[in-house]
Amino acid sequence: MTQNPRHLRRNPTQSRAEATLRAIREACLKILDEEGHQRLTTNRIAEVAGISIGSLYQYYADKRAIAADICNELLLAELNEVDRLDEQAISMVRNSLETTMKFFVEEYVARHRRLYLKLKGFYLEMHWHYDFETYVLKTRPGKLTTVEWLPRALKRYREILGVHDLVLASTMIVNVIEGTIHATLDRSPELILKQEFADELLAIVLSYLKYASKSNASPGSS
Question: Would 68 be classed as within a structural domain?
Answer without folding.
Answer: no
